[in-house]
């Protein structure tokens, strides 16, 4: 396959740049957390509770302790110096607030009750199997109806106008409840920790979306100063929100390593991934819409329940997008948190927005049908020109254009509204649309840049690349500002000892790193040019630094263009014309490097940014094919049109939306974690029974970026694009399914059993 040559220098911003870390990953050179090995390393295996609620009466470890190679059985009573994180609002916390083995209570099936450490993994596994727990068993509450016996409190937010009065007097009303199931994060790389102590210092190799906050949390949990803790996650096989906070296995590996004074490795296996390291919680959302007969929204109520564990307050903020997608004078969002005997939930790609927009956008489709209006017409009519929730203008919003472009691409003007009215190749066709939104911000970041004597440059930042292209983005900035070729740029990320960088969460890393990286490179270039002008023996000695610039990694006079590129210049060449490679400047000045640090000033402290509502927008258009004779449904095409500011790397950007659309197909048709009602075990906790889309399940996917720079967010105009891609897929598919079959599915995933109700029986 022919490869397009990459554009040069400043044009690299916005190009489709392959990942610079791609070869390391495809050749197996990239080392993930549990790939790390050390002399004297020993292996830990966790033992899980086999009940969903109750108490450990006795834990018999005597046989295990006598088994070959066993060094330690860590459990309640012998674990030393592990604590809860400090109470606070920011800087992160353990995803599960209870310290492991804190007491003998069992709160959910699979909770760790012991950890066996042995010389080999096999010995540890054998000993773990020999541990016997005797429980006082109680019945876990894993009921899927979240409203059942609910006696907690409901919190109101975003209230404006009088939605109840407006609903009571609305000529047209929609009142429906939508449910989304527990979805489990299934990144390729599972969780796991290698803990290495050196005196009072500990290094944890973990799979983390935020090594800086992870360091703070682990210092508190282990009771050691922050500067003694180092977290390394150089490569992360995706996280999707499940790796935003540390999980108990990190604490357990570190505690075991400290007690044994040996490096310890503790992996979370795929089965444990379903119980111990988070999930998107179940939601149950009642949506009420009021409208005039000509389709103007008069009221929106969004009242929802979200499930959480017995130990932690976690809210899936389903109503976050509700106040500003549509213009509507009367609105309220209320939240109720429901405790169940499950492990702690965690953010999962597009938390809140993804289930929330399934409900809201499905209800909008139902309203359009009731009004006999085109669903896009209804959306145009109610599009919000400003954020009516915050009462602020949007920094940049082109949602209407997303609809227009998507309609054109899918052929919406050919769509006939009657259920089952469209046919193609012996199949019934349905089309649906769903809007997407996600908030933007410029969060703090520090990055450093260095010219090195070997002709290479380095960028350093303690943020991490969770598979999104962050390594490449830093290299693009360095290349754009210096012309140093991409293969001469070394980017160091994923190590808490590097300059503080942001957590890879909320799709905010790109907008955060660009200003810091740019400032670092620009400052280092200024220093380089000054030195070139000041150093005796430099061909630019005595020149004004402002008359110099850098091109292709060489210092050149601004009024000259480099004549020769990529050829070493020696005495005799016209150095002022062809420039001096930066490493020659270092040599002349006897410097081992020139570096600078840049910082990103956060938008929440920027008075200008605070005058705007910052969000990305988008729309998915889905087409489904329904074969009634064999009750087969396929998603045939999805067009995703996104307004995410300026795209910095078209390849990595499109990759994010494609991956998210695939997860959206999974959410719509397949994914659901089932808990056994007697013991609370996730009974489909494996890849055979927990269905995710395979290539054969996928439609043709097509991504379009509108590419309008949002200069309020940063000087590049770039917002984030990770999470938003999953929002809006499920309502687009569910609405397309209704259009094809006449069956409105309000509880995901859409099952074949639902579609057997279809009255569309003939093609
Ligand atoms: Mo995202 S759910 O903040 O990784």
Explain what the structure shows.
This protein is α+β, with helices and mostly antiparallel strands. It has a seven-stranded mixed beta sheet with strand order 3-5-1-12-9-10-11, with helices on both faces. The protein is globular, with a radius of gyration of 28 Å. Residues 562-573 have low confidence and may be disordered. Residues 209, 239-241, 244, 347-349, 351, 505-506, 723 line the site of dioxothiomolybdenum(VI) ion.
Task: Lay out the secondary structure.
Elements: H1 22-26, E1 42-48, E2 54-60, H2 62-65, E3 70-75, E4 105-106, E5 112-118, H3 121-129, E6 132-137, E7 154-160, H4 163-168, E8 172-180, E9 192-198, E10 201-206, H5 211-222, E11 229-232, H6 248-260, E12 264-267, E13 283-291, E14 297-308, H7 322-325, E15 330-339, H8 353-371, H9 375-382, E16 386-387, E17 392-393, H10 399-410, E18 422-424, E19 427-439, E20 445-451, E21 457-460, H11 470-482, E22 489-492, H12 509-534, E23 548-551, E24 554-557, H13 575-578, E25 580-581, H14 582-588, E26 594-600, E27 615-627, E28 632-643, H15 650-669, E29 700-705, H16 729-741, H17 752-755
Parallel strand pairs: 1-12, 10-11, 14-15, 21-22, 28-29
Antiparallel strand pairs: 1-5, 2-4, 2-6, 3-5, 7-15, 8-13, 9-10, 9-12, 13-14, 16-17, 18-19, 19-27, 20-21, 20-26, 23-24, 24-25, 27-28
Helix pairs in contact: 8-9, 8-16, 11-12, 15-16
Bound molecules: dioxothiomolybdenum(VI) ion.
The site of dioxothiomolybdenum(VI) ion has 12 residues, from loops.
């Amino acid at each position: 396959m022919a490869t397009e040559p990459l554009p040069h220098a400043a044009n690299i911003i916005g190009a489709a740049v392959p990942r610079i870390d791609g070869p390391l990953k495809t050749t197996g050179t990239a080392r993930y957390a549990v790939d790390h090995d050390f002399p004297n390393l020993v292996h830990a295996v966790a033992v899980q509770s086999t009940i969903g609620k109750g108490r450990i009466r006795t834990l018999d470890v005597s046989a295990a302790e006598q088994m070959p190679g066993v060094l330690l059985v860590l459990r309640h009573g012998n674990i030393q110096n592990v604590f809860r994180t400090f109470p606070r609002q920011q800087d992160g916390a353990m995803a599960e607030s209870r310290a492991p083995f804190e007491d003998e209570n069992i709160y959910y099936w699979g909770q760790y009750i012991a950890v066996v450490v042995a010389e080999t993994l096999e010995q540890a596994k054998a000993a773990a199997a020999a541990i016997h727990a005797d429980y006082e068993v109680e019945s876990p509450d894993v009921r899927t109806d979240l409203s059942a016996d609910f006696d907690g409190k409901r919190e109101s937010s975003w209230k404006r106008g009088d939605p109840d009065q407006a609903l009571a007097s609305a000529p047209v009303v929609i009142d429906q409840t939508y449910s989304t199931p527990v979805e489990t994060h299934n990144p390729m790389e599972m969780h796991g920790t290698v803990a290495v102590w050196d005196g009072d210092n500990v290094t944890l190799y973990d799979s983390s979306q935020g090594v800086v906050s992870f360091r703070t949390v682990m210092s508190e949990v282990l009771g050691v100063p922050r500067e003694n803790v180092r977290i390394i996650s150089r490569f992360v096989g995706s996280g999707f929100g499940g790796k935003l906070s540390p999980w108990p296995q990190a604490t357990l590996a570190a505690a075991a390593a400290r007690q044994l004074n040996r490096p310890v490795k503790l992996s979370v296996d795929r089965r444990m991934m379903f119980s111990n390291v988070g999930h998107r919680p179940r939601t149950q959302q009642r949506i009420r819409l009021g409208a005039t007969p000509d389709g103007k929204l008069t009221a929106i109520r969004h009242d929802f329940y979200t499930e959480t564990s017995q130990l932690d307050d976690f809210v899936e903020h389903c109503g976050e997008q509700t106040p500003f997608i549509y213009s509507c004078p009367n609105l309220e969002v209320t939240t109720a948190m429901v405790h169940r005997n499950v492990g702690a939930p965690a953010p999962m790609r597009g938390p809140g927005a993804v289930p929330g927009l399934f409900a809201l956008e499905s209800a909008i489709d139902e309203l359009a049908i009731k009004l006999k209006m085109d669903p896009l017409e209804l959306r145009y009519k109610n599009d919000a020109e400003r954020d009516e929730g915050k009462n602020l203008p949007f920094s940049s919003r082109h949602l209407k254009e997303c609809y227009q472009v998507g309609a054109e691409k899918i052929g919406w003007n050919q769509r006939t509204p009657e259920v089952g009215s469209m046919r193609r190749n012996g199949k019934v066709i349905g089309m649906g649309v769903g809007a997407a939104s996600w908030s933007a911000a410029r969060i703090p970041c520090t990055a450093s840049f260095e010219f090195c004597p070997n002709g290479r440059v380095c960028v350093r930042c303690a943020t991490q690349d969770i598979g999104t292209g962050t390594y490449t983005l830093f290299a693009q900035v360095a290349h754009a500002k210096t012309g140093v070729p991409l293969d001469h740029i070394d980017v160091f990320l994923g190590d808490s000892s590097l300059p503080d960088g942001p957590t890879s969460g909320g799709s905010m890393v790109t907008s955060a790193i660009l200003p810091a990286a740019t400032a670092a490179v620009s400052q280092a270039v200024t220093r380089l040019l000054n030195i070139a002008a000041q150093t005796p023996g430099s061909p630019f000695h005595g020149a004004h630094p402002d008359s110099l610039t850098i091109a292709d990694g060489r210092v050149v006079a601004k009024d000259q263009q480099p004549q020769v590129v990529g050829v070493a210049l020696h005495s005799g060449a016209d150095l002022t014309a062809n420039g001096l490679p930066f490493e020659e400047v270092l040599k002349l000045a006897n410097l081992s490097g020139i570096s600078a640090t840049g910082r990103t000033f956060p938008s929440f402290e920027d008075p200008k940014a605070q005058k705007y509502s910052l969000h990305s927008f988008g729309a998915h258009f889905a087409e489904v094919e329904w074969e009634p004779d064999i009750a087969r449904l396929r998603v045939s095409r999805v067009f995703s049109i996104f307004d995410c500011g300026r795209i910095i790397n078209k390849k990595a950007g499109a990759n994010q939306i494609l991956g998210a659309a695939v997860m959206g197909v999974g959410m719509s048709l397949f994914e659901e974690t089932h808990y056994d009602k007697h013991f609370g075990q996730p009974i489909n906790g494996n890849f055979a029974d927990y269905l995710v889309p395979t290539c054969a399940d996928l439609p043709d996917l097509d991504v379009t970026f509108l590419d309008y720079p949002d200069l309020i967010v940063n000087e590049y105009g770039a917002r984030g694009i990770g999470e938003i891609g999953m929002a809006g897929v499920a309502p687009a598919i569910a609405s397309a399914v209704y259009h094809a079959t006449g069956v409105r599915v309000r509880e995901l995933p859409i099952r074949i059993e639902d579609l057997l109700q279809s009255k569309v029986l003939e093609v």
